[in-house]
Fold this sequence. Notes:
Layout: E1 2-5, E2 13-18, E3 25-30, E4 36-40, H1 46-56, H2 69-97, H3 107-138, H4 140-160, H5 166-198, H6 204-233, H7 237-261, E5 266-268, H8 269-282, H9 288-294, E6 306-309, H10 320-330, E7 335-340, E8 345-350, H11 356-374, H12 384-395, H13 398-409, H14 412-421, E9 425-430
Parallel strand pairs: 5-9, 6-8
Antiparallel strand pairs: 1-2, 2-3, 3-4, 7-8
Amino acid sequence: MIVEMNEDKQNTIVFQEIYGSTPLKKDYFRKSDGQLSVVDRSPKYTSVSQFFRSVFLPQGYPESVSDDYVTYQIWDTVQAFASSITGTMAAQAMLKGVGVGDQTATVLAATMTWLLKDGTGMLGRIVFAWIQGTNLDCDAKRWRLFADILNDFAIFLEILAPNFPRQYFTPIVCVAGVCKSVVGVAGGATRAALTQHQARRNNMADVSAKDGSQETLVNLAALICNLVLVPMVTGHQFVIWMLYLVFTAIHLYANYSAVTSVVMETLNQARLHILLQSYFKSAEIPSIRRVNKQEPVIFAIKRKIAIRLGSSLSDVCKKMHDLDVLESIYRHGRYMLALNTYKNCVYIVLHDDSTVTDQIQSLVQAEVLEYVANNLHDRQNLSIEMQEIAAGMMEDNIHKILQVSYKVAAMAPALLHQVELQGWDTQRALLGADEWRAHWDFTHGLGGKKDF
């Protein structure tokens, strides 16, 4: 709410008031007896539109959310509607499969099937969260799309299952239950990550609540459609499968459009890779929108050299000679990067005092190696330092490769300043580092005097 006071004493309007960016407006007049008179200048239609706006949109919209909010929510609404339709057909198939309408079916058999389905789903939820929990933050867009693809596969299994004998029906629905439990973890976690991105006034709870209201409204609309569709398609398998294919295609396209519309300002390894490879090629920082457009949302970034950020020291130091090489290069650093040419993998050991900037610098060095490896046989466009790295790769001279690439990576702080000017948030990077941290002080020997 914004209030302005008119300083012209001759003017009868002493206050003007507006409600955020909405057309709601009030004028306050001074009467001759000193009282204030209020005149509502709001358009007549706003009472209804403002009601729906307050019910389904976060307070302060559009300033309180990210610029991609509307586009994402539109596609999210479409996918939720399509998923509700196919989900109802799957529920009908499941009820038929457990024996609803079959006089030979027993309550015990149906109950056991349902319990096994729920039990395997619970185990799947725990295992998936254990294995992939950290990656859900780092690659929220990719895992969001993965969850929806897996949900469609689970629905496919549930519709298909009643066509099999009882001994096969239960294992199939258990697999579907595991898939849906994974969908619950991946979908819920990534939705929270995207909501955090959209909330621009520390209003994550409000954005999440209004998103839930929007989805509930969509589900109500889908419920009405299902009340019409279900009696028409019951017993007609061909029609059910045709509707499944149509709405699944809509569901997948809407989800792909939704995640690709998201423009995130934080850096993860995929976006940092795209940004740096473009910078090395053109010496220009690409825009946030361009990098997000190029970010893959189905498959992971393809690399010639894999990166293991937050590795254990045992992964890189098998003998004292390895440690001597690292000491000579990273004596004053807050990370140590080692290259394994046999596995085509970079291992990055982080100091326990390392910051986000140190982690980004280590990844800059890794991306320098990646860029040189991709241009190893086309060196005319490489800088002098990168040509030295290329020569080291041809000679299999690890010391030379690491020493020169570390000098190139020293540009990271200056580069980060340019990146911040483009609007990137470099203070909250989602780089997916593992938890190993080491302490070293090469002036006193590895580890110094610090105890963990």
